[in-house]
Amino acid sequence: MTPDTMLPPPLLDALQALLGPRGLLTEHADIAPWLADWRGLYQGASPAILRPGSTEELAQAVRLCAAAGVPMVPMGGNTSMVGGATPDESGRQVIVSLARLNRIRALDPLDMTLVAEAGVVLKTAQDAAAEAGCLFPLSLGAEGTATIGGVLSTNAGGNTTVRYGNARELMLGLEVVLPDGGVIHGLRRLRKDNTGYALRHLFVGAEGTLGFITAAALRMYPRAREQEVAFCAVGSEDAALSLFRRFRDRDEGAVRAFEYMSGTGVDLAVRHIEGIAWPLGARADHCVLLDLASSRPQGGLRALAESVLEEALDAGEVLDAVIAESDAQRAALWRIRDEHPEAQKREGASVKNDVSVPVSRVPELIRRSSVALTALIPGSRPVPFGHMGDGNIHMNLEQPEAMDPAVFLARAHDIMDCVNAIVRDLEGSFSAEHGIGRLKTDMMEDWRGGAELGAMRAIKSALDPLGLMNPGKVLPGPAS
């Protein structure tokens, strides 16, 4: 029996009547592109993709699937790094795409709020805010594909967390379809609403295991009227952190992003991404991308950047630096950082370690992990990069050039365990912003066991007693 024929005929007929030809896809050619995750770690199977056009259609479809005992996998932009939106291999799980829920329902520049449906692409939300003279600050490399529902379901972090926080901090209210088809109408745009349990926070970061986020009320900020972006070569990981402290101590509110990159990571971007070149006179082993922004039209950011960089040059922390002179140059410098994942993908097999430690311990994380990983797999190439300003480093490892990719990837859990042992010693987390998905469920018992995991299981059981919402993700145990 092929996946195309595995839906019970009564359910198939009911879904067709409800959703129509645009809302139900059952041909394998239509489904196939959505059966693999972005990294190519998982290849699933599914009998159908459900594409509801409204919250009410989704609620009715969920009721039908729940009554038939059919598991459901929420799908946003399919940019998960941990297999969080990929169905399993059984062919029983339907994919529920929220791509047609793509309206911006409201935008209020006075309230500084934006109400967007789950299928709105992150870049679209950013552009809508900008057109209104505001800023929606959540920013990440996949913002041209990732959707509002997806970034909230994973509590995405991204490049500006150091100033604006994760997705959770930008969320005021949610509309959610529960696993039984009930709807929470929680799109309140209030800064203060102390009325019982804050249910909205259950669904942010739950990775679709508790229900479908269908729309969100989001915080906006005043747009930047002045911005300075600098690319710096620094002497070491410690020098990078010292530079962050200098800027933070001088004007913490001006620092919008502070990103660390290794020389190896920049080399890969230069090698594989057209139009990227080293922006400095010489290659460096350690680099920093600094982004300063102010809503004041004359915020003095250029003078701030030049003054602090001069101090750091005199102290030997910064070896060389360039400050962008135009929007095009700012975008070019950011592109070096944003293309790191794609460059690593083109170079060959790599294992991702999305981890966080206290900011003060980031240099130690990078040093110790790099030594341990190259000892574990000689010839492998550590490629640490990411959000030094908030303690989240992607401690990635690229395969040795002569090693078979499959052989290297077979060591993925050894590699993750190697990094995680150091992360635990540094009082960090084994998942900073990518989530658990399917990749890291086996780590939950060890890292979040006991009462903490027990509470998670109790919440899951209360909201999804049949285990139909994104089974096999986040919580350890057999998939439904």
TrEMBL record:
Q: Where is the FAD-binding PCMH-type domain?
A: 42-223
Named cofactor requirement(s): FAD
GO terms for MF: catalytic activity; FAD binding
Among Pfam families, the record links this protein to: FAD-oxidase_C (PF02913), FAD_binding_4 (PF01565)
Q: Biological process GO annotation list?
A: respiratory electron transport chain
**UniProtKB keywords:** FAD, Flavoprotein
Which PROSITE patterns has this protein been placed in?
Answer: FAD_PCMH
- Which PANTHER family does the record associate with it? BLL6224 PROTEIN (PTHR43716:SF2), D-2-HYDROXYGLUTARATE DEHYDROGENASE, MITOCHONDRIAL (PTHR43716)
UniProt name for this protein:
FAD-binding oxidoreductase
